[in-house]
Design a protein that fits this description.
Strand order of the largest sheet of chain A: 1-3-2
Radius of gyration of chain A: 19 Å
Shape of chain A: globular
Helix content of chain A: over 70%
Oligomer: homodimer
Distance between the termini of chain A: 53 Å
Largest sheet of chain A: 3 strands, antiparallel
Number of strands of chain A: 3
Chain lengths: 227, 227
DNA sequence: TTTTTGTATTATGTATTCAAAATAGGCAGA
DNA sequence: TCTGCCTATTTTGAATACATAATACAAAAA
């Protein structure tokens, strides 16, 4: 099973694997802001040579996850509140566009999938399973973006999202905020189901505004804890 | 004069120079869609080794300007009408946001600079100097984006813009469309000057819609000419 | 004790080498 | 002639080696 696919599948370029690996580590906070990416150490950890690693680092730099210091290597980009706010503003704009397009372009299958994820998310909320809730939540937003059918939009959103997810891992949703977020999702789903573009746009914008506040608060809190 | 600064200035990493060089070549149509990037040839042309070149190619791939074919190198991404339309839709969304933010955040100096560029553009229009007009036009849009003060927005727009500029180089504006574009710019400048965000948003959206039509028409024409 | 300077070490930047995959061309057989 | 296979060449992928810049540290001088 899968043998044929494996044979057919070309091995992915090493540098791509490395990009994914490092991106995950950064997003999950395994590599913390300001941490230096020591090439020798990472090479040993990943069991590769410097060439693909360095290619990967250049890619991560264009994605904004690491910062290149000439002749001094790369460090994980700091999570500044201003950058986060800017990123979320842009993502809001993209979500708004995606919502509009999704209302027009989403297939019934797309909507069914989003609905399924929504119920899955409700289950995690009921169980107070925060990590799984976040995962589902992310997936729902991503599916709405994807339902827009605009490949460039999808790609751009994905890239920006990586930076926000970094903050998510330190966020501790208050029960109150969590509950209202779920309610907002109910409305979003309803608007999408009835393909009510203006309403969906408004709901996504509001949802995002709350998210901004929540993420920034988490950042502040974290900064305070660090100090 | 400048000696101290020059001493202080660190040399830019080679791969960045290469990225800029290749990006320019692609945007200006020197490297045409589908063209293979032969590493050996490019190394000789640029007088560098393969390592920084390959790092640059990876970066261009994440920017979407080239496509990586595993074990078969990289080719310049094709200019597909659908991708172009998708890109412009996203840029429209970003321009809309930028317009809003610019109305709130732009300094009088920013506005003065945009106004100056506007008059410069009018001069080029009067002289029917298309290339210089395009340059000015691009610059005005970029300055509006920059006046938003949102660094992430600026960065994202820049990246998307590279792909659109490629099409621009093959576009031959009709006199009629040219004239109306200039009129639209007059209104945009007026709205920005009076910091009328809703009006600016609407004007930018309309301006972009016309641009989409123009760019797509140019693409079609070019595709037809190629066939 | 503090500062400075020279040296050793380490890390990064770039070039080169080695390996593997793809392409091109030729040859045999139908 | 055409087809299929095989080899030779080219090209990319990855690793290693070399060059250069940054850092750490120690010794000497103020």
């Amino acid at each position: 099973m899968g043998t044929i696919e494996n044979l057919r599948l070309k091995r992915r370029p090493l540098h791509e694997e490395v990009v994914d690996q490092l991106r995950d580590r950064i997003v999950q906070g395994d590599l913390t802001p300001g941490a230096r990416l020591n090439e020798r150490v990472l090479c040993e950890q990943l069991g590769i040579s410097r060439t693909p690693l360095r290619e990967a680092i250049k890619v991560l730099a264009t994605e904004g996850l690491v910062e290149l210091l000439p002749n001094r290597g790369a460090i994980v980009t700091a999570l500044k509140a201003e950058t986060m706010a800017d990123t979320l503003a842009v993502m809001g704009s993209l979500e708004s566009l995606a919502g509009e397009l999704a209302c027009a372009n989403a297939s019934e299958g797309d909507l069914a999938e989003i609905r399924a994820l929504h119920f899955e998310m409700l289950a995690h909320h009921a169980r107070r399973a925060l990590a799984e809730y976040f995962r589902c939540n992310q997936l729902i937003h991503l599916r709405i973006i994807e339902a827009s059918g605009n490949a460039v939009l999808i790609n751009t959103y994905r890239q920006l999202n990586a930076n926000v997810r970094r903050a998510r891992y330190m966020a501790n949703l208050s029960q109150e905020r969590w509950d209202s977020a779920v309610r907002e999702h109910e409305e979003i789903l309803a608007a999408l189901t009835s393909r009510d573009a203006p309403r969906l746009k408004r709901l996504l914008a509001e949802h995002l505004a709350h998210k901004v506040a929540s993420v920034l608060a988490a950042l502040e809190e974290n900064a305070a804890a660090a100090a």
